[in-house]
Design a protein that fits this description.
475 residues; mainly alpha; 28 helices; flat
């Protein structure tokens, strides 16, 4: 496998030694051909004897044997650093179809005559079958300067491909290839709306998901089509794809089905569901309030809790506060987030949740308390940064202590420099490095000097002296 220029150089040496071209690079991987192209020039500076021609002066004639080169050595000539040799090699490569990948690369050559000859040859030689194999390489070269020509020709040729032929590219592991193929398939109307919907639901690339979802909904027709298209969209893992399906429920006038997505885990999907329900005469706020009035209901979805905060008002905080003790961690976390969204955070009510056994609840609680971090109980938080506490509790407490600044933040950060968790240790070290004394604190505190000395391994001598000087501490 040729994975870099060094391996490309090794492949160039093997080709010069007579190794057949088909056993060196793999046409399925554009990186192989690109590495070979770079590798030949790498060899040129160190081992010119491996090239089909030595260093030629600009006025010297071309090597007489270039027209007699075999496929392997002609491949080296196509990658030669001398543009005249590359140009002649392009002319001679018509004898060997296996050299077409290197001709593709030469279509973006920086020398105009080489580029023009390569483009003419590619236009004449490219067929649907060869284009399918060369598509990954052409699209890779297309990202270079002067690389648009190959992509344009590829689109023209594959515009004649059938659905069966194009399916090879629709399943390609390279997302750039899949995007290109799906655009062609959509433009050529080669895929039915149901097929596009399944692609939108299953593909991992967001661009492909959006392309296919939009095209599937654009092509919707009768009621039967809705069933086959909406089902995969609404069950997709990607929120953007689900939101497209939910929005389409308005055209289908399926208000009840849209209500099911009012409590979706994605804010985007919830917003689309509220739009559809409202457009069809429903009341999303009333729907949310109804579900949040039973704070102990085990089936309460977390999305309904945060959904109420997204479209409700500050009076709805009264429905969210009882949910802070709900048995489901997701509900407790969303209740905290909802109170923050409604600007109804009561710090004293939320402090106990920093000891919650669920990391998500502590994370949301720390985020909600950050604006009031300077009023938080420093000693109480410091107790929660000891190694006996769960990691998520230590992280939440340190976030608040770090936000306080001053000696409290420095004391907490230095205390965590030996924490068993490497990420927390790293974060503490970063906090110490960026620490500066607070302007509203008394300077000259000996404890600051002791803490900085304990963390001197994080500073250069100059920076350490500077920090102590800022804090009014003797070095």
């Amino acid at each position: 496998m040729i994975e870099n220029i060094e391996d490309g150089a090794a492949a160039a040496i093997r080709l010069a030694g007579g190794t057949p071209l088909h056993s060196t690079p793999d046409i399925a991987d554009p990186g192989h051909w690109l590495a070979l192209d770079e590798g030949v020039r790498e060899v040129a500076w160190n081992r010119p004897q491996f090239l089909p021609a030595p260093r030629w002066e600009h006025s010297a004639p071309l090597p007489a044997d270039l027209t007699q080169l075999g496929e392997s050595r002609l491949a080296l000539a196509l990658c030669h650093r001398d543009g005249r040799i590359r140009q002649e090699a392009v002319r001679q490569s018509v004898r060997y179809p296996g050299l077409l990948p290197l001709v593709v690369i030469r279509c973006a050559d920086w020398v105009e005559p080489v580029r023009e000859h390569a483009r003419q040859l590619l236009r004449e030689a490219l067929t649907v079958d060869s284009a399918l194999g060369l598509a990954p390489l052409i699209l890779s070269v297309g990202r270079r300067d002067r690389g648009a020509f190959g992509v344009e020709v590829l689109g023209q040729i594959l515009g004649q491909a059938t659905h069966r032929q194009l399916s090879v590219l629709l399943a390609d592991p390279d997302r750039i290839v899949r995007r290109f193929a799906y655009r062609l398939a959509i433009e050529g109307r080669l895929l039915r709306p149901a097929e596009l919907a399944r692609a939108a639901a299953l593909d991992q690339d967001t661009v492909v998901q959006n392309l296919c979802a939009t095209a599937a909904l654009t092509g919707l027709g009768d009621e039967d089509a809705y069933e086959h298209v909406l089902s995969p969209l609404l069950s997709a893992r990607n929120p953007r794809t689900r939101s497209a399906g939910v929005t389409a429920l308005r055209r289908a006038e399926r208000s009840k089905q849209a209500e099911l997505f009012l409590s979706d885990r994605s804010a985007l999907v919830r917003a689309c569901a509220r739009y559809v329900v409202s457009q069809l005469g429903g009341d999303p706020v009333a729907w949310y309030r109804e579900r949040c009035t039973a704070p102990g209901a085990p089936e309460l979805p977390p999305g309904a809790v945060i959904g109420l905060a997204e479209c409700g008002n500050r009076a709805d905080a009264g429905l969210l506060r009882p949910l802070l003790v709900h048995p489901a961690p997701g509900v407790r976390a969303r209740a905290v987030a909802g109170l923050r969204a409604l600007d109804c955070v009561d710090a004293k009510v939320l402090w106990p949740l920093l000891d919650d056994p669920a990391a998500g609840v502590v994370r949301e609680t720390a985020t909600a308390l950050l604006p009031s971090a300077k009023e938080s109980p420093a000693d109480w938080l410091a107790e929660r940064t000891t190694s006996e506490r769960p990691r998520h509790v230590r992280v939440g407490a340190f976030r608040l202590l770090d936000a306080r600044g001053g000696i409290v933040a420095l004391r907490a950060a230095v205390g965590l420099l030996e924490d068993p968790d490497i990420k927390l240790r790293t974060w503490a070290g970063q906090s110490v490095r960026r620490w500066h004394p607070s302007p509203d604190e008394w300077h000259g505190d000996a404890e600051v000097g002791e803490l900085l000395d304990r963390s001197r391994h994080l500073f250069s001598d100059y920076v350490l002296r500077r920090r102590k000087w800022e804090a009014g501490v003797d070095s």
